[in-house]
Amino acid sequence: MCALISLRCRQLLDHRIEIFLALVDISQQFSENGNSRCCHRDPARSLEPGPEGPETPIQVVLRVRPMSAAELRRGEQSVLHCSGTRTLQVRSPSLAPDPGRKSHPGDAGSLSHAPAARSFSCTVFTFGQTGSGKTYTLTGPPPQGEGVPVPPSLAGIMQRTFSWLFDRVQHLGAPVTLRASYLEIYNEQVRDLLSLGSPRPLPVRWNKTRGFYVEQLRVVEFGSLEALMELLQLGLSRRRSSAHTLNQASSRSHALLTLYISCKTAQQMPPVGPGEPPVGGKLCFVDLAGSEKVAATGSRGELMLEANSINRSLLALGHCISLLLDPQRKQSHIPFRDSKLTKLLADSLGGRGVTLMVACVSPSAQCLPETLSTLRYASRAQRVTTRPQAPKSPVAKQPQHLETDMLQLQEENRRLQFQLDQMERKASGLRGTQMAWAQRNLYGMLQEFMLENERLRKEKSQLQSSRDLARNEQHVLAQQVHELERRLSACHRHQPGPGPAPLCPCLMVPAPSCHALPPLCSCPWRHLCPLCQAPLAHWACPWRERHLQQVLGPEAPGSRPLSARPPPWAPPCSPGSAKCPRERSHSDWTQTRVLAEMLTEEEVVPSAPPLPAGPPNTSPVLRGGAGVQNLAQRLEALREQIGSSLRRGRSQLPHSEGARSPGQVRPPC
Ligand SMILES: Nc1ncnc2c1ncn2[C@@H]1O[C@H](COP(=O)(O)OP(=O)(O)OP(=O)(O)O)[C@@H](O)[C@H]1O
C-alpha cells in the first residue's frame, strides 16, 4: 500500500486552518510495498505547493491491484504491466498482437499529477470496477481478527492521512477542532453511518454558502487518532456490503467520510448553526461503489437493483465530468442534481476544492473491457479543472444573490419536474420489486422538490420582509428630514432683526426692501455708482444728486413720493415700458442673475443694467446641459457688454463735468 497524499496544516493570517494537499511520489510508495503498481506522469514535481486561485486540474492516479487468489484459481491471466512510472502496458491477444503497446493513447500514460495544490477543501475518491480494490486503497485490508492490528505498511490512505494529520496538528501548537461525518448513498438515499440510532434517509439541500450538504448529518468531534479510527470502523461496519461473483465483500453504496478542521478559539470562528459543520479545512474521502456488469457479477433481485442504482449514479457522474470538460458547457448548466452522488461531489468536481482521483483496476484479462473503460474515465477526469478557494464564512445573504439563486433553483425544479414526469411514464411499465424501487425513488425526489420549494418560499418571504423594512426606514428618514427643515425655517423666522434698515444709497428707499433681498435685488447701483464707479458703501460721489437726475430724469428719487416709485428690486425698466426705447425683457434680467449665481455659486449682484433687447431667448434656464451652455455664452457676452459700457461711461465722466451733456452719460436704460 502507499501513502498517496499527506496533509499539512498551517495557521493562516486570518486564523483559519488551511490544508495543503501534497501529493507524494506515488511510484516510490507503491514500489516500496511491492504488491501493486501505479502509473503517473512527472513524479518529480510533487511536493511544491501550487499557487492558490488559478484553475487546477483534477489529479488522477492509477492503481493496479495484484491478481487475487480467486482470479488465479480461475486461471485468469494478468494483462497489465507498468513499465516505469509513466506507462501502462496491456498484453492482450484479443486487443492487439503487439505486447508492448500502451493501453490506449493518452490514458494511463497521461495520468498525471501536477504540482501539489492547496486548498481548504480537498477530496480523494476512488473509482473503478467492482473488486478492483477501491475500498482496499482507501482503508487497507479488513482487520484479520480481534486485536490483530493491520501492519502500517498495509494501512489505507485514510489511516495514513489520519496519523499524519494528528502529527501535524500536534506540531502546529494551535488549538484545532477536528470533526468527522460519515455517510453512505445507498439506492439514492443518504444514510448517516455515525447516527446514534439506526440510519435513516437524510435530505440533501443546497445553499449559496455551503453548496450541497446533507441536512441533520451527525458531525462528531474527536480528539485523538484512536477516536477517529473508531469512527472509521463504526462507519465501515454499518456500510452496506454483499457478496457476488467478483467480490466477497462488495460495497453496495458510495461512502463519504469528511474531516472538518477548524480553529478552536471562538472569536476566530464564525458562528455555526446547530448541526452545521464548522467553517475551515475540509478533507473528504469518497469510496465509490464499483461499476458492475450484472451478468458478470450474477446479481439478482435486491443486488440487481443496487447495481442499477450504482451504475446510474456513476453514469450521472461521468456525464457531469464530460460536460465539465467542455469549456463552453462548463459555463452553463452542469446537471449535478441528477443524483445524490453528483450533488455531494459537485464542489470537488466543479467547484472550489482540490481533487485527487484514484482509478483502480484489476490486472485480470477477464476484466480488461472494464479496465479500459476505467482508464477512459480517468483520462477524461484528469482534464477537469477546479479553482481552489477558501470557503467563505456564512455571512448574511445579499438580496440580489438570493433572488438569482431562487431563479436558478426554480429553473432546476422545472427541469427536474420534467424528468420526473418522464420517469413516471417509464415506471408505469414496471412490475414487482422494480416497481417498488421506482416508486420509492420517485417519491424521494418528489419529497425533495416539495422541501426545496418550501425553502424557496421561506427565503422569498424573508427577502420581501427585509425590503419592507428598508422602505419603512426610508420613510421615517424622510419624515425626520422634513421635520428638521421645518424647524430650521422656524428658527430663521424668529431671529431678531438687525435694527432699523439703512436707506439704499441710490434710490433712498429703506434697505430691507432692496438689500434684504440680495439675490433678487435689481438695484443696479447698489455697490458701485454707475456713473463714477464710487463704491456705494462709501457713497460720497460729489455729483450724486445730479447723477441720479441724469439717470432717472424727472423720476429722480426726490421728485415724487416713495410710494409712487417703482420697487427698487424691479429692473430699471419694466417690460413693455413705452419710455424705454431699447426694451429688455425682465426675464432676461432675472435669468442672467440666476445663471451667474449658478455658475459662480455665489450671490451675484448686477453691476450694470440688463441686456439690450435681442432676439427672443428660447433656451430654458436649466441647471446643466445645453441650456446652461447657451446661457453661459450669453453671460459672457453680457459681461463684455457691461465692461464696455462701463468703460465708455468712465471715459465720458471726466472730472470736469462741464465737458459732458446730460444725455451722454445716461445708461442704456
Ligand atoms: N492492493 C491490494 N493488495 C492485495 N489485495 C487487494 C488489493 N486491492 C484489493 N485487494 C483485494 O481485492 C478484493 C477486492 O477489493 P475491494 O473490496 O477493495 O474492491 P472494491 O473495488 O472496493 O470492490 P467493490 O466495488 O465491489 O466494493 C479484496 O479481497 C481485497 O482484499
Automatic annotation (TrEMBL):
Keywords: ATP-binding, Coiled coil, Cytoplasm, Cytoskeleton, Microtubule, Motor protein, Nucleotide-binding, Phosphoprotein. Signal peptide: none annotated. One of its GO terms (biological process) is mitotic spindle organization. It comes from the Eukaryota. GO terms for molecular function: ATP binding; microtubule binding; microtubule motor activity. Residues 57-384 form the Kinesin motor domain. Residues 564-574, 607-618 have a biased composition (Pro residues). It is found in: Cytoplasm, Cytoskeleton. Its main location: cytoplasm. Residues 35-56, 90-114, 554-587, 601-624, 640-669 are annotated as: Disordered. One of its GO terms (cellular component) is microtubule associated complex. ATP binds at residues 128-135. This is Kinesin-like protein. It comes from Prolemur simus. The lineage of its organism: Eukaryota, Metazoa, Chordata, Craniata, Vertebrata. The gene is KIF12.
